[in-house]
């Protein structure tokens, strides 16, 4: 029971009231005395809703807030009632329904202080969904809520660009994709974060995750090497900005492994040209491999293949099919 109360305090410190509704925790975690209202007034009824939430009577608070909203649809404190109902629904673990109240506040009161509060609440719900909690259907948690989590993280960035909450949502979106193994989308999210928040204290984390996501996109020497090339450039930037951290993660060894993989990619491409009877193009790629990755094992194998090819072919390699940086044939202009 005490653990549950603590969770409510952590999630909603500004709304937690004592059982007598005389005090509450402010944003700094300090108790402050509340103004007492006549229980028959709208303000007094809102206090009763806060008290129900404080005592973990979520269902009761939802009902009280719903009645209040129906009774006072034009009251100045209507925005507060929607926030309270959303909080009560979260207490009941009705997270998806809570989003309707928070969205109402966000859309109807974009210039109010409750606007940011509601976005903070939505961010916490998104984190719950991102953690695997499902939406309810017929009272059971049957529907994945990953889509809702993704949408909320994106919307927060659009609604509060440049803010601390927008920054948190941006990095969390990248982590969300990364944890789900969606490495291409994770790389895009981290790249956008670095662009939008170049001075963030989370920059090192984003750069490291971007390197990892780029590496994970490479499926092998027979596949597209764009991820490896991106990772190579990102490691160079990471070493320049965070040399001590780069040493800890073994950035130099990682760079060597990338070089080995890129060299093997070129070697396989050259062998493919040989198999197609295009020895001139094969020689072109072998020579490039030796020039760009001379310390790799693939370079030694390339030298052996060059020696095995006819000298006449080597001397006329200017007729070779042009290839791009990844060793693939370039499109004809």
Describe the structure.
It is a single chain. By secondary structure, the protein is mainly alpha-helical. Among the domains are: 1-92, no CATH class; 267-323, no CATH class. The chain has helices spanning 2-11, 42-54, 58-71, 78-91, 95-108, 113-130, 146-159, 164-179, 183-196, 203-216, 226-241, 243-248, 251-275, 279-292, 297-308, 311-315; strands at residues 23-25, 31-33, 135-137, 140-143. α7 runs antiparallel to α8. The protein is elongated and about 100 Å long. Residues 1-21 have low confidence and may be disordered.
Order of helices and strands: HEEHHHHHEEHHHHHHHHHH
Q: How confident overall, as mean pLDDT?
A: 85
Query: Low-confidence stretches at least 5 residues in length (pLDDT < 50)?
Result: 1-21
The span between the termini is 72 Å
Secondary-structure-based class equals mainly alpha
Strand % is under 5%
> Order of strands across the biggest sheet?
1-2
Radius of gyration: 29 Å
Question: What is the topology?
Answer:
Layout: H1 2-11, E1 23-25, E2 31-33, H2 42-54, H3 58-71, H4 78-91, H5 95-108, H6 113-130, E3 135-137, E4 140-143, H7 146-159, H8 164-179, H9 183-196, H10 203-216, H11 226-241, H12 243-248, H13 251-275, H14 279-292, H15 297-308, H16 311-315
Antiparallel strand pairs: 1-2, 3-4
């Amino acid at each position: 029971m005490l653990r549950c109360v603590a969770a409510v305090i952590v999630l909603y410190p500004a709304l937690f009231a004592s059982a007598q509704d005389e005090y509450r925790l402010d944003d700094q975690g300090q108790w402050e005395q509340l103004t007492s209202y006549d229980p028959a007034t709208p303000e007094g009824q809102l206090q009763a809703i806060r008290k129900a939430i404080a005592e973990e009577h979520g269902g009761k608070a939802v009902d009280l807030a719903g009645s209040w909203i129906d009774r006072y649809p034009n009251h100045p404190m209507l925005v507060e009632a929607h926030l309270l109902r959303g909080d009560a629904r979260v207490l009941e673990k009705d997270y998806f329904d809570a989003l309707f109240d928070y969205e109402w506040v966000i859309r109807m009161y974009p210039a109010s202080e409750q606007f940011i509060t509601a976005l903070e609440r939505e961010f916490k719900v998104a984190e719950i969904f991102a953690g695997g909690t499902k939406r309810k259907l017929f009272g059971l948690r049957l529907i994945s809520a990953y889509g809702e989590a993704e949408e909320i993280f994106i919307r927060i960035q659009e609604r509060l660009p440049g803010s601390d909450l927008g920054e948190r949502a941006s990095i969390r979106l990248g982590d969300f994709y990364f944890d789900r193994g969606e490495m291409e989308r994770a790389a895009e999210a981290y790249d956008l974060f670095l662009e939008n928040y170049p001075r963030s204290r989370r920059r090192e984390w984003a750069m490291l995750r971007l390197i990892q996501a780029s590496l994970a996109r490479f499926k092998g020497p027979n596949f597209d090497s764009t991820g490896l090339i991106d990772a190579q450039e990102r490691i160079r930037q990471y070493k320049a900005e965070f040399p001590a951290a780069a040493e800890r993660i073994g950035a130099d060894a990682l760079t060597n492994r990338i070089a080995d993989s890129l060299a093997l990619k070129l070697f396989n491409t050259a062998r493919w040209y040989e198999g197609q009877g295009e020895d001139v193009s094969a020689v072109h790629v072998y020579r490039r491999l030796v020039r760009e990755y001379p310390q790799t094992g693939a370079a030694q194998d390339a030298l052996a293949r060059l020696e095995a090819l006819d000298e006449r072919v080597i001397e006329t390699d200017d007729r070779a099919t042009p290839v791009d940086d990844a060793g693939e044939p370039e499109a004809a202009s």
